[in-house]
Specification:
The structure holds 2 protein chains of 2 kinds. By secondary structure, chain A is mainly β. Chain A is built from 2 helices and 9 strands; from the N terminus they run E-H-E-E-H-E-E-E-E-E-E. Chain B is 39% helix and 15% strand. The chains are: A mainly beta, B alpha/beta.
Chain lengths: 151, 309
């Protein structure tokens, strides 16, 4: 019998087709540090049918919410999210870059009011997806670097 | 079209016909702004003038506009002595100000400050300049000056000269000129040329513009020469600054190839980018432009307060 690199999970979330080498960033964005107690399996640079290499993350006992999935889309645009209950895939999402990034990434302009001590979340409007261009609703700055400004 | 209750945050939020409507109302305000006629259109109304950064023309012209219209003004000027100094957020400051006033004008060192203020305030908020961001009422008075001096904006060639990278007035103005169908020549050394994010927006508007380092070419082709101050602190060393500042100085000599009806504008304050002897030529319109701040701001105040449609 062929040995599986990662065994199936009973309940939780499988994030498949993550851009190769990005799995640890995905975990960081999801705020998973390993201290939460979930069983987390990470496979990096595994062979895929669609792409030459991919990463896979399996989180047991936690179902991802849509807004968390949107955060992932910025660094792993081709990722799929499988919600698993009792070994079955009950929901399957393809990540999508949302129209508005609210509280996901900071504006790149350090002098923007959204980067000061004010009671607001940064809000960036997506004006184009490929290539990614976003605009801060506060200062109006159009920007393309999101990854390094993720909250 | 109604302006009642509206915020004036960014010039691109105003449609072309709305810009022209403001300019038309401003035209009617000129005799009142000059003190030749009086009015009490805004009697009983209060303007909160919140200036967290130094300003002379913008603050004085807003306050003059409000007084000329029969209204009154509350002023905060500078960070000292304000609650901002004590660590109050801008969101709280504007909620306090809206309790005392009918309309707020805000000058603030951070980009996007006016947009944030508008979010927390149900009264109209007018952006009086946010960091190196926008200054829409300056743009409106620039447009008003071009229209009243040259009769039109569309089809005119405007040379924007000087600090195009950090100068907020040229950012707002270029976006407006693009939409109103003027052609632009961006005259600046590479270090302080128009930033890419503004050029991207201009491209998406289908703007007609070119970039050059040659002031002579700008002067020759321009109907409007819009001069801005080159800031010393932007340059790595004094020598480099002196070289650049010297070559962008508008003098009588440099104007010999200018078109006869060409006008020179400057948002002021100027340092030495326009020689004083230019002031007495028919080209010099920067003091007229400074006056125009009053009728344009009168128009905006009456319109956002719903007194004039």
């Amino acid at each position: 019998m062929k040995e599986l690199k990662i065994t199936p999970i009973k309940d939780g979330t499988v994030i498949d087709h993550i851009t190769a080498g990005s799995a640890l960033k995905v975990l960081r964005i999801l705020g998973i540090t390993g201290e939460e107690g979930y069983t987390v399996s990470v496979a990096m640079n595994v062979t895929s049918k669609k792409e030459s290499l991919k990463d896979v993350v399996k989180i047991e006992g936690r179902e991802l919410k849509p807004e968390e999935i949107n955060k992932i889309s910025l660094i792993a645009p081709r990722a799929t999210i499988n919600i698993i209950r009792d070994y079955n895939v009950v929901k399957k999402y393809r990540v999508q870059i949302p129209d508005v990034l609210e509280g996901i990434a900071k504006c790149e302009n350090p002098n923007c009011i959204s980067n000061q001590r004010e009671p607001i979340q940064p809000v960036l409007k997506v004006i184009s997806r490929n290539p990614l261009r976003i605009k801060c609703v506060y200062c109006g700055r159009v920007q393309s670097q999101v990854e390094k400004n993720l909250i | 079209m109604s302006f009642k209750g509206r915020d004036i945050i960014r010039i691109e939020e105003l449609k072309e016909e709305e810009i022209y409507r403001i300019l038309d109302v401003a035209e009617k305000m000129v005799p009142v702004a000059r003190g030749e006629e009086t009015t009490d259109l805004l009697y009983g109304k209060v303007l909160a003038s919140l200036f967290f950064e130094p300003s002379t023309r913008t603050r004085l012209s807003f306050e003059s506009a409000m007084h000329r219209l029969g209204g009154s003004v509350l002023t905060i000027s500078g960070r000292e002595g304000t609650s901002l100094k004590k660590g109050e957020t801008l969101a709280d400051t504007v909620r306090m100000a809206e309790a005392y006033a009918d309309v707020i004008v805000l000058r603030h060192p951070n980009e996007g400050a006016a947009a944030l203020a508008a979010q927390f305030c149900s009264k109209p908020v007018i952006n009086g300049g946010d960091g190196s961001g926008q200054h829409p009422t300056q743009t409106l008075l620039d447009l008003f000056t071009i229209k009243s001096e040259l009769g039109a904006i569309k089809g005119k060639t405007v040379a924007l000269v000087g600090d195009l990278r950090y100068g907020r007035t040229v950012h707002s103005l270029s976006l407006a000129l693009a939409r109103l169908g003027a052609r632009m020549i961006m005259v600046a050394p590479e270090l302080i040329q128009m930033p890419t994010y503004i050029l991207d927006e201009l491209n998406s508007l289908g703007a007609k513009y070119e970039l050059t380092e040659d002031l002579g070419r700008g002067i020759e082709e321009a109907d409007v020469l819009y001069v801005t101050r080159i800031q010393r602190e932007r340059f790595p060393d004094e020598e480099e600054y002196m070289k650049v500042a010297g070559s962008y100085r508008v003098t009588l000599e440099s104007l010999k190839n200018a078109k006869e009806g060409m006008i020179i504008l400057h948002p002021l304050p100027r340092v030495d980018e326009i020689a004083p002897e230019v002031d007495s030529t028919p080209h010099a319109k920067y003091f007229v432009q400074a006056f125009n701040g009053v009728p344009v701001r009168m128009a905006i105040l009456t319109m956002v307060l719903g007194v004039i449609e």
